[in-house]
Write a structure and sequence with these properties.
The protein has 263 residues and is of the alpha/beta class. It has one domain: P-loop containing nucleotide triphosphate hydrolases (Rossmann fold). 34% of the residues lie in helices and 23% in strands. An eleven-stranded mixed β-sheet has the order 2-1-11-10-9-3-8-7-4-6-5. It comes from Methylobrevis pamukkalensis. This is AAA-like domain protein.
Amino acid sequence: MTVSVDMGAKAGGQRAAFDLEELLATRLLVQGNSGSGKSHLLRRLLEQSAPWVQQAIIDPEGDFVTLADRFGHVVVDAVGSERDLALIAARVRRHRVSVVLNLEGLEVDAQVKAAAAFLNGLFDAERDHWYPMLVVVDEAQLFAPAASGEADGEARRVSLTAMTNLMCRGRKRGLAGVIATQRLAKLAKNVAAEASNFMMGRTFLDIDMARAADLLGMDRRQAETFRNLERGQFVALGPAIGRRAEAVRVARWRPAAGAPAPG
């Protein structure tokens, strides 16, 4: 049975949907400046696919903890040791529960170390527990930077290795990476290159527009369109989405009671 994840509508009014099985096999990269609707897109994807597949979300800003209210995700506050987080990740895979790793309130260095420990725990799970899992990493440039960032050198190296394992070697272990970044230029190229599906939102810097256009097979003139995209509008391409680049307007997600709605 093919499971379609309703993401919204294409420019012509047709339904825009992900083939979930294909997405699990081919991974996804999302780019969009602050305010472009990137987190909104991730939320829509998570809500629509939650009944069908186990999920793990690396959440630097606490944006996704309310998934627990509607879908039963376990929220893990990353306050324990790295060994504790690795053990929790192993249990998550063993018991097939969906989880949000909440990194809100931690310093960047602590966020990077916690995310790396948790991702490594998911990756190192026993073979008997390699069930399909959607692993969403928001603000991926923090954990797989193209150059030295705010985290110390050792933390950055471990985190980059964990992200590379997720995107390059995770498929055999059932791990399907969905990574989102504000700027492609700040994301390690070897991590970004492993995605086969792309959703590119509004961006203004030439270097980011050029990289987005290159990934989508667009020319320099077409790259200018990324400046004019509206909030919630993305140019999508990939085997799980469509074989040619098309504009997609992401549908509204359903906020939990008491949670702020977008807009």
